[in-house]
Structures are given as structure tokens and as C-alpha cells.
Amino acid sequence: MLIPLASWLIDSKFESDLEKDNFQQTVQQANNLRSFFEQLIQHDNNFRQKLDTNGLKPTLQVALRETGILVDGFADEWYPYHAFATRIQNFGQAAELSLVEDQQHLFLLFMVEDDDIVYRKNLDMTGVSDKIELQLDGFRLQFSPLAPGRVAALRQTSNGFREVSSVYAVWQESTNGYQLEVRLPRDLVGAMFGAEIHDADGAQPSPQLQGLYSFTNFEQVALNSMLSVGALSRLKADDYRVMVTNLSGDIVYSYGQPHQDIKGHWRNRLWVNDLSPIKTRGSKVSLSSEELDKTLLGKAQEQLVNEGALSAYSRVLEPLYDGEQIVGALILESSAINQKLYLRDFWLRMLLLMLLFWVLMVWWLYRSSKDYSRRIVELRDITEEAVSEQGQIRHVIEREEYYDDEVADLTNTFSHLTTRLKQHHDYQEKLVARLNHELRTPIAIIRSSLDNLSIENLSELDAQMLQTAQSGASRLSQTLSRLSEATRLEQAIKSAEKHTFEVSSVLKDLTRAYATNWPDHRFEYQSDIESVELKGSRDLFVQMVDKLITNAVDFDNKSAPITFKLQEKDFRLVFEVSNRGATIERKALKSVFSLMHSSRKNSGGHLGLGLYLAKLIANFHNGHIVAKNHPDQGGVSIVISWKNKYFTE
Fold it and tell me: Which one of 292, 397, 522, 590 is most buried, counting C-beta atoms within 10 A?
């Protein structure tokens, strides 16, 4: 937000500097043009006569063509020249005539209010209709259309009317009447001019002439042509308007606009509602103001109109002298609006580019953050899949080769870590097999030797020591067998296939089976779930429950039933096996599922292999197994829970 605001403040400062520079250039240009016009007054009698207010005759103001004019009967190209139009009234209906010239042609635009347009019906020019007549130096031209569109320019001769093909005219209807646009060759016009409008009304049984009115009071008047002054015809005005008035304030010469055309680009409408030239006092045929009066008294005037606004312009009024006598005034108007619009257009482009940059930056950040988030989620899922909750390595995470960033470094670190852990885990698994292979033969030799010694006659002390050695060897052999069995079962669990099975029915069947196998113990199944499914192995699940029940039966004091509970709690599926009896020491609750661990009181040499296998099977089914003592210290519960994504109801 600060950057656009700062750039707008800088733009405002530049616009203020442009106004001041334009004002200084206008003052300097006015001084140069004053010298030019004063020399022209001394050497050009025609121009000097235009400034003479004595015996001033009526004239029609003719503007110099500065823009392209398409003769089509519409006035859209005439907006720079409406200020020089001549207007008349006829019984409440207005008419307007605008004249524009260049070196080859004279252009005319008639805008007439008419509530009833009557077109000519006969080709022989008989009858009454709406028409316009022009009086030129030696002949008259009539424009009487048969219909809207191109209309012939008819010259009246002794033999009737004939068409002047060099004249091009188009008649079009408007909302208030009609418009006639005419292009005349400059050589055909001459110096005198007259124009009349014939208004007919067709409401009567036959069309009747309702009015005849003239722009020149039914006489020919001189055309105030600026082309008649040779030096002025070569004067080029860029970005300023030049006006020369006589002592009466009548404009005898006017050329240029205070600024270039600003209709060229749609973005200008963001700053200017009206794209027509700035309305200044140069938009009039005659001027009267306090500044002009002071100028005609010999005091030059310098003004900066609408200072600070986009439409601000400079006006300089200089008196014109013929010797020691003031004969008129020079008015020069100029505006820096084009430069301001260029500056604002640059500011707007910069703002749009900045906005585009920020949009692209936000889009890039969004894409990057989305890509980072996706890759982090993928890394999380891969890590969860590669490493079990108990820290076992299921598979090695692959290295990231495509990206080279922080997430890729983290992925490669995890890949290296899982590779090392996998190697260590494989080494541990092979170590058990190697120990079993390497130690079984020496143990067999030791047991055989001990058996041979038992045959001999030994003293009581030696016999006791021999029995102790045999017991240790037997226990060591049993330990190796259990380790081998645990390794085989772990490999079997990992290679088992997973299928969906229904849990409630399995537990109900097992409850009945356990009641038959252990009639001295009571079993009870509790559940508020009708049906729930897990993905895994039904046989392994049954084996896991067998291990838990066997462990519970071994330490059950028969004071209460051994209970099975299956319930949904906090969006988790919970299976609990509970028995009354001996408890587990508090510090051993987390290690009770370790291999070869036994911490219960009166365990009787129990090696803890059953709970270890139960933990392996629970992990295979994506469950989390824990042991906890009852609050009243009267028994133990083994609890297995599953997240909601691992079971379906």
C-alpha cells in the first residue's frame, strides 16, 4: 500500500512541475508570437484590415480544419469547431451553421430543428419540400433530398437544374430534425457567401412553406477566412491555441487547440469524463473580460487557470501594437494535460505491473507452499508407513533426487536413518538365528557330558552341583528355543496377508470356547457394538486373544469373571481383556510386552513370550496395546485400541 501511495504523491509533484514549466513556456511563446503578429500588421494589409473596427462589415467565421472530417451527415467529428458556429431562430426552431476550411475544401455542417421533415417527391424540382440553398459568388446551390443519405447539389441555370458533381453532401435525420454535411471545392466558393433554410410542413392536405430564414440576413457576407493571410496559413500551433482579437473583442484569427487530442486511449476516461478539448475562452467568437480590457489598455495578463487540476491551462494576453497604437490583443492558451495523462498512464502501468507482480508472487508462494505441504504430508505418510509405533522398520524410505531444498534434505536424512535402522534390525534378527545355531551344539555337548557324570558315584555335594548345572543347561536350551520361536513367529506375522474380518462374532465364539476349555473360570463378553470390521488376519487375531486369555487365566484369582470389552470411545475402537488377581509393578507396565520379560509376582518362571507375541500381532493390525492395573489394585487389564481410520462399522 505504501508504494502506490508514494508513487501517487510523486506523480502529483511531477504534475505540479509540468504546470509551472508549461506556464513559463506559454509566456515565452506569447512574446515570440507577439513580435510575429506585430510584424505581420506592418506588412500585411489584409490582416491589418481585419483588425480595423471602423466600418466593420458582417462576416461569417471560418475555422481552420485541424482534425479529419468524414462527410456522412453526422456531427461527431465537428466537436472542435462548434464554438465558431452561427446560430439563428425561426419561430422557436433553432438552426446552426459551422464552417471549416483547409487548402482544398470548405466544409459546412447544418444542424436544423424540424418537427416535420418534408422530402422532395418529384424529380423535376416541382412542389414544396424542406431544402437548403447556398448563395455563392455567381450562382446558387440547392440541396433538396428525396430521402436521407447522399443528396445532389443542384445548380439553377436557364435550362433548369443540373448537378454539380464536385460537391459532396449527405443528409441525415436527427432526434430534433436533420443535419446536412457538405464538402465544397475551395475554388468554387469565392469570397462571399449566403445560406437560407426553406422549412415546409406536410400536415396540410399538401405541403406548405412554413418559413424561410437565413444565416446571413438574406444577403451575401464575407467569409472570415484565415487562409486569406498567407503567412498565417503556414503557422503551425502544437499544444496551444492562438487567438487574435480587435479592439471590439471580435476574434479575427484563431488556430490550434490548447492540447493535443486526448481521445486516443480508453485509459484517459479514468481521469477525464469529457474527452473533448478543454473549454476556454477560445471557444467563443467574441471575447469580453476584465483581463482583455486590461490587455487592450496596454497591460499584459498572465494566468494559470484551475491550478492543481488535471484540466489546468495557461493563458497569456499580450497587446498588439501598430506603431504606438494598440490595434488588438494576442491570446495564447496552452495546457499540459497530455503530459499529465502520459504521466498518469505510466503510473497506472507501473501500478498494474506491480499488481501483476504481487499476484504472480502470491500465486508462486501459494503453489510453493502447497507443494511443500504436499511433500511434507507425503513424507509424514511414508515415515508412518516405514516405521511402526514400536520403532520397527517396515521398509527403507527412498532418497529424494528430483528436488534440491530443505524438504529433500529432510527426506534424504530420513532415508539414511531408516537404512541404518533397517540394517541394525536385520542384524538383530540374524543374531538370534546365529546364536541358536552356534550355541545349540555346545549346549548339547554340555548336557551330554553332565548326563554321563550323573552315572558316576558322586558325593552329595557333587550331585547337588551337577543337578544345578543340568538345570541351567536345560533353561539355556529352553531360552534359545523360545528366541527361535519368537523370531519365526515375527517373520510369519510380517508375511501374513491382510483381509477384512468381523470382530464381534469372533469374540463371541471365543468366549464360548474359553468357557468350555477352562470350566473353573468364568468368562463374560461385554459390547455395545453390533458389528465392526478390522483389516488383518483372523487367525492371528484369534492367536493374539489366546495369548491374552492364557495370561489372564494363569493369574486369575477366580473372584470375578474374566471380561472381554469391545466398545467405541473417543472415535477409537477399544478391546480390553481384564482379570482379577496379581498386579504389575508400576515401573514395569511399559516393559511388560518386551521379549523374555516377566515381572508379575509368583510368575513361576514365566518368560513373557505370550505378551510379546500379542504385541506383535496387535501392531500387525495397526493397534496400540498397553497394560494397566485396576484402580483398586485388584487385577490387570490389557487394552488394545485402534484409530477410526483402521476400522469400519
Answer: 397
